[in-house]
## 1
Amino acid sequence: MTSSRSLAKDGADITALHSPRWREENDVPVRQLGEPVPFFYTRAGAMLPLEGQYRGGHAFLMANGPSVGLLDLMPLHRCWVMTLNNGARTFRGNANCTVDEPSRFSLSMWLDPTILKFSPMSHFEKPLWDNRLVNTEQGWVQRWESSKLRLGDCPNVVGFRRNEKFHAPRWLDEETINWGNHGKWGGGRSVLLAALRILHLLGFRHVYLLGVDFDMSVTKRYHFEEGRTPQAVKGNMSTYAKLQKWFTELQPHFKKAGFQVFNCNLVSKLTAFPFLSYEEALATASVQIGDVSQERTEGMYSRVEEQKKTAESKKGKETAGEDGVEAAASSPEGTAAPPAELKPEAAASTAGSL
């Protein structure tokens, strides 16, 4: 499929892609018309070919609504999970996606090499904030200070390029990742949009939404500790209304592309996607893998050798049978076997019959 051109690319991300650090690598991006468009990059601008890497997989996308706090999260450790922003505080998933300044998110998440972290390309050189609770010689110490690290110093971070004008027909195949609209086009941007596009690019075709409550108040905020002012709540509720509209526009395109998204919060205010209970989603996501704790492993190492011996034995028997048939047919053509000698009585009987 030919990629659609994005309507409003993020200038900072584009500039970062051609940064001096990129040029130091002597790796200049050259893309000809019709060639695949890269989506993911290292700090130095080298391409990371992650597209389709999780083809056929099922993913849970954990947003930050407080309904996550009502779930038994232990079964999720057997599934592939992407968290958003500071959601890694509640659950350490396989991946995390952010779009805002990296200093707003936990340094422990950025430093965790087990988490594949997606962040805008322009954020690699931005500073971080140290909020870790660390064990020192003086005991446990709560850090709350600027970190000397920049995002690009952290492990397992993947950069992507954004655009800021939503258009449903091109959303699944444009060459950058949309996260809503810039203020000049009505505003409303969300990490949820970017995360869904990234999951589609990675190859997931079944996505289960958790914590997408689309409902916020001063007392009902996130599943991790964080305050919200009345003005911030109003802004989030306005974004939820826009996302409701945009996801409704996207759903026909998702269906056509075989991209199935389910909402696992049965009382969520987001109604653009079909509802599926958390328990059903867990069962569906694991059906292909089965019960790994009980599956048979004995004989896996010796199986190939045993099959080889069985095949050789079978071939030997077949060869012996073929040799017997060939021996029986080896006498000269047209020569009949000599008749058995007749007994006197049988000879007389035969002569009388003649």
## 2
Amino acid sequence: MNKVQTLIALSALAASTLAPSAAEALGNRVIINCRHGDLVCGEDFDAFTAVLEGEGAVVEMRSDVPSIIGDGDVRLLVVSLPSSSWDTNPTITLYIPSFLSQGGKLLLLGDGETGEADSNARIRSILGSIPDHGITLNAEQVNVNGSCTDAPTTDIQGDPLTAGLSSWYIGQATTVSGGDALVNFTPDGGSTTATLGAVSRLQSGGEVIVFGDNEGFLGGLFHDVCDGIGTDIPAAHEALWVNLYADTSAAVDGDNDGYDSDVDCNDNNPAVNPGADEECNGVDDNCDGTIDEGCGDDDDATGDDDDDDATTGDDDDDATGLLDDDDATDDPFRDDSEWNSCACGGGEAVASARPAGWLLAVLPLGGLLGWRRRRT
């Protein structure tokens, strides 16, 4: 594959996360990415792995991110303490777009430890490479519960991922902003509610889930300490773990706007759906694959603020004449440059509505030659 082909492939895969589609039914594999590999991280994820295997998952611990995540066999990718392999292509530019465009779930676990700043920086880099999710992993460590004596938070938000979940034990927390909140809590010494975990469901059907508490989520030493005082964290967190693996490929109406997720390009926002009116706001409100049509005079929008419809007297410019379609002249042309979107006749796209540029250039020359022949 040459450079041009590679660039085309990368662009297509990256753009695929933006294209509305239903989530696909994926395979039963789960990849856990931890830079220390199975030797260290494996024990931390023992309880999590056992729960998912009980649901039929095939779980593999990796210190790298394999290309197989883009093959359709991997349903869930968990990233905890990401390695330097995330700093280079094609992990972010190729594998992750392909994985998410097929409806995969990406779980990113931030670390509350101040000594793991590089891990959180890589989490933020991964988030920065994914368009239109809106989630931020913040920088400040706000809770430390190393002795497991703090009461769990019960501020669980309604979501398919939190079905059956009633409480969450926090180890060392970093707050999360944006997305749809899953678990909220009150930071130590504070009075304002913050978010510990959130989800964003992409137009592709893929999901990005971020938790700002690596220890509280996966277990390891923190769970051992809790177990020593009679607190079974895996049992408390199991419902969310099961929901993460659950097949969500069936279309649902997550925002109750009357449109299921197989046609609704943002099933978390009831104002966005195929029946909505397009607004000039940088969002594809009506899910037709085009953003802000009606704002640039090359569209089929109508109204007092649009000058390329059939109504006269609503000009938003001062143009008149043959090439202007918002004057009183009955001509087929618009006053914009998007000729292939011209609503000529029945409104269908007509590429030939305007003479080709080369023809306009040749016609005067032909007239001049004819004039010279007549004179001779």
